[in-house]
Design brief:
This is NADH:quinone oxidoreductase/Mrp antiporter transmembrane domain-containing protein. Helices cover 66% and strands 4% of the residues. It has 20 helices and four strands.
Amino acid sequence: MDVMLVLAAALPAAGAFAVWGLRRRPSVHWIGAGAAALGFAAVALLPLERGSGAWVSAGGKLSGAWWHQVSVEWAPSLHLEFSLAVDGVSWTLALLTALLGVLCCVHNAVGAEQRAADLLGADRAASASLQVPAGSFETGGPSPAARRAAGVPAGGGAPPGDGASGPVQDPPGSVETGGPLPAAAPVHGVPSGAGGEGSDGDRWQSPTLTALLLAVQAAATLVFLADNLVLFFIAFEAVLLPMWAIIHRFGDPAARRRAAAKFALFTVAGSLLMATGLFVAIADTGTADLGAIIVGGGVDDDASLLVFALLALGFAVKAPLWPLHSWLPDAHTAAPTVGSVLLAGVLLKLGTYGLIRVAGGLAPDGAETAAPVLAVLASLGILVAGLVCLRLPELKRLIAYSSVGHMGFVVLAFAAGTEAGIRAALFGNLAHGLVTPLLFFLAGALKARTHTGSLGALGGLRLAAPALAGLLGFAALASLGLPGLAGFWGEAFTVYAAAERGGAWLVPAAAAAFGAFLAAAYLLRMLRRVSHGPVAPAVIGVGDVSAAEAAVWAPLVAGTLLLGLVPGPLLTLFSEGLL
């Protein structure tokens, strides 16, 4: 099973290069989807033959707590080893990353085929429209169809005595428009909606987008499996470039450049702080082995607060924690649908995973000292996001701001520091990775159909497309924390974990409870505006859920139901994690 650790990241990376190299071939989208699926299979097999989870000392080194571990020397003088490991915490996030990678690649492949079919149909319609009536040719004589009706043989000249010497020719440019007959529109590599809603389809190169999706999947998987701090940093940074390219190249033309620039500035600044904290930790402990540092109790007490502050600030940008969140709504609004899915389901998880395992593991004393500050910021983020969402008029931006509130719950649960709090943080983190990508898929489908995301322009979806409206209602109820769905457990136990601390911690607990009320208010408001009331003009005639869309969204729906109804197995997996 150790080889599966390498294949989990190597297969999507190889797929990215293959898709890029074969990008001129029409079926290349499915090659990318296949590579993503193989990566998912490699991750899914990792729990087999796993270790007991008990740390043992062998040869002076701690080992055994990871399910599986692979370590190859790379640059020992720089504390750099290609060291991968997996346990119950990292496996769940790697599996989520691989699942979303597969769904995004399939979404892109189906969209490319649909776009090709649409262009081919439009071209055939245009060709049919060139069959003009009698007398419309520049010669002024009857058309071939008229001559056939008069008994003149097809392709023959004029009747004897007309003085015509040969058949009528229809060269390019002979139609009254004066232009050449239109050639078939290029159909290769332009997915429906892949390049952002309302964009010029010829601008988007779908194989490139598929390659970028695979690159994000490979790098993010490497982040969750890295057991070496230098490798962790390299993989963390490797996620940023393809994600920036997805926003900058394939986003909404009106906003993509500004959103991509803001994304880059915030994340690079956060990465500099994170890198400083990691290297201080390495210098203090003399090793870059993440597991060994955690088991050894972290860095020295004197450096603990400094290391945690640097790491927490760096990871808080990616989480994102208020007030370092302002890049996220712009990035989500500008990004194509698959970009928003990966932002919510993968990139935000890098920040929370880093905060919980890396920052909390390397500097536990610093985390305990800084916990009240984190709790205050998380509580403010929950309240601010909820209040802003109550006034937002645009669907994707509303879902983006809701992520700020949900991540506030995760950070607050981590700050509580209790066993219930840590498990609530991990559970809420994973639940958000299922529910919010589903919301973005639905919002993207609705925007592609109606060409608008304005809540004021939508309405009556339950009458025009009942299945789509039903799925949107399901995802919204899961997001607001309805019992029986995945969103409930993380938020409910976050409030419990904060209240369990007692004293001043009752204030953030109350803030979180009120934030859950705000989430219910703004999500129900969204459903009322989109699904209920008379059918808005933009919604008239929209198609309902297609078979391909149902296949892509079904795993997220099933996961949301499964985690909501049977949370026990996931909590058991977390107990096998190194924290």
